[in-house]
Design brief:
Elements: H1 8-22, E1 24-27, E2 30-33, H2 47-52, E3 59-62, H3 68-79, E4 84-88, E5 91-95, E6 98-102, E7 106-107, H4 108-124, E8 133-138, E9 150-157, E10 173-174, E11 183-184, H5 188-210, E12 225-232, H6 250-259, E13 265-269, E14 272-276, E15 287-293, E16 299-304, E17 306-310, H7 315-322, H8 329-336, E18 344-348, H9 352-369, E19 376-383, E20 389-391, H10 395-403, E21 414-416, E22 426-428, H11 445-452, H12 454-463, H13 473-477
């Protein structure tokens, strides 16, 4: 076999040609696909782009899915590649070996069954479970011949952030060349690259988590902190194309301070907008610091709980210190009377859950401002709490202490989940609904935040020894 060497001008010519044909961005020997778009940022159909799109790297057309096996194959092939769209309701007609497509659509009732099949496939037959957008596109759309009473279903599949994704058959599929369907991947090198990509995402998330630690400059390491992290799902390296200025959020910050609590200091630091509630001289007061990342819309909240330490335990001194502030502290003391303590550190969680809800209200306002509607996921870390006893000024907490023979000593650096894998984080649905008949629009801002953050509240309660079923919403709401 002979080796052909190209001159530099000719090599550049072939290089440019490859970029145009394949839609590649090449930088320092790394290749990244530029995804072809048929939906805009508001998830509206780009009709001209759809008309000119052929099946291949980013597009797959289906008349309908007959079973989960084919659906999982199609979806995982995009997840393991560069993302793309599956359009259901399209009939392929070949003329002279050239495929042509008719957007015939499907009946509304069949569309509902197809969406149910796709959702079930994603939940049960793809591992790990990804986030995928499923959008019904109703007719009529004269430009593509879609009639009234018919629908297209567009499945918007991102490039997966935790590959490889395994289909129902147990195989790994990827998009290859201009093939109209995903093909099985058998290359050990490619599979290793997919695993490496998931590790890269975990590294980026860890950097986001570490970004909150710069606040520790004030040497208050010994005080208990609850850190709550929110990430868009799937996690992007960069989501915003336009920089969000602090002045853009002036009205939000001002109104939030009137309704919930006022941040004493708001400023920018690199990609973050920092919201800081300055602690008073009395270290027992709680404080909140939050960081909103303007690039990828992540949100990091640090809540410092109120805390009191007694070098020599004495119930009378406890009562004198707390009776004026807490309604149920007398009953809590009775739970401690039979215990012997050389010293005692109490951590007040009464305001912590409220701070989680209020900070989420701020985050939701910012997300609404930037028109972000996709799901979120969350992680919590409780630090500097070793050997301390939690206290909450609620009847339900006191009853729990009596029933389970509290006090409960917190372990240091409790977190959920332990791994920084975005698919195992706490899912947060921005369209959380109540099990009652109450309509979503009827919720107040605070009620919506309470319902939406219940999965986080349940995990926090678990870290301090109170196990609640997530379905017991009314009991959980009593604690906030």
């Amino acid at each position: 076999m002979s080796l052909v060497l190209l001159s530099k001008p000719r090599a550049k010519c072939y290089y440019a040609l490859a970029k145009r044909r394949l839609g590649l961005v090449v930088k320092r020997h790394k290749i990244k696909m530029q995804r072809y778009q048929i939906l805009d940022q508001n998830k509206e159909l780009l009709i001209e782009n759809l008309i000119s799109a052929s099946e291949g790297w980013f597009i797959e057309y289906k008349e309908k899915f007959n079973d989960s096996s084919k659906a999982s194959k199609s979806i995982t092939s995009f997840l393991n590649s560069y993302g793309g769209y599956i359009v259901v309701g399209v009939k392929e007609i070949k003329e002279d070996s050239i495929p042509k497509y008719q957007f015939i659509g499907i009946d509304i009732e069949l569309a509902k069954r197809q969406i149910s099949l796709i959702k079930d496939t994603i939940k049960r037959n793809i591992s790990p479970t990804p986030y995928v957008d499923i959008l019904p596109i109703p007719g009529p759309i004269p430009e593509i011949g879609l009639e009234k009473g018919k629908q297209l279903i567009v499945i918007d599949v991102p490039a997966g952030n935790n590959p490889p994704y395994i289909s129902l058959s147990g195989k790994i599929y990827r998009r290859k060349h201009d093939s109209s369907e995903g093909e099985e991947e058998n290359s050990r090198y490619v599979v290793d690259e997919l695993y490496a990509k998931s590790k890269e995402i975990e590294f980026l998330i860890q950097k986001e988590i570490d970004a909150l630690n710069y606040i520790d400059k004030r040497n208050d390491y010994k005080l208990t902190n609850l850190n709550v992290y929110y990430f868009p799902s799937p996690f992007p390296n960069k989501l915003s194309k336009e920089i969000i200025l602090l002045s853009d959020l002036d009205d939000i910050i001002d109104d939030f301070g009137k309704k919930f609590y006022k941040f004493d200091n708001v400023y920018t630091e690199g990609p973050n907008i920092v919201f800081r509630s300055v602690l008073k001289n009395d270290y027992r007061n709680s404080g909140v610091i939050a960081l909103f990342n303007r690039n990828n819309y992540s949100f990091k909240v640090r809540i410092q709980s109120s805390e009191t330490y007694f070098p020599k335990f004495n119930s009378d001194s406890l009562l004198i210190s707390f009776r004026a502030n807490y309604k149920f502290f007398d009953e809590f003391i009775h739970c401690l009377e039979n215990e012997r303590f050389q010293s005692l550190a109490l951590v007040g969680f009464t305001d912590v859950l409220k701070s989680v809800v209020y900070s989420f209200c701020l985050y939701k306002r910012i997300l609404d401002h930037v028109n972000y509607k996709a799901p979120l996921c969350s992680k919590i870390i409780l630090s500097n709490a070793h050997g301390k006893i939690p206290f909450m000024d609620y009847k339900l907490f006191i009853e729990h202490c009596k029933k389970y023979k509290m006090p409960y000593f917190i372990s240091d650096n409790s977190e959920y989940p332990i791994l920084n894998n975005i698919t195992s984080f706490i899912p947060i649905d921005l369209e959380e609904k109540s099990s009652s008949e109450q309509k979503f629009e009827e919720y107040s801002e605070q009620e919506f935040a309470i319902l939406t953050t219940i999965p986080i509240t349940v995990k926090i309660l678990g870290l301090i020894g109170m196990d609640f079923p997530e379905g017991d919403r009314e009991a959980i709401k009593m604690l906030i």
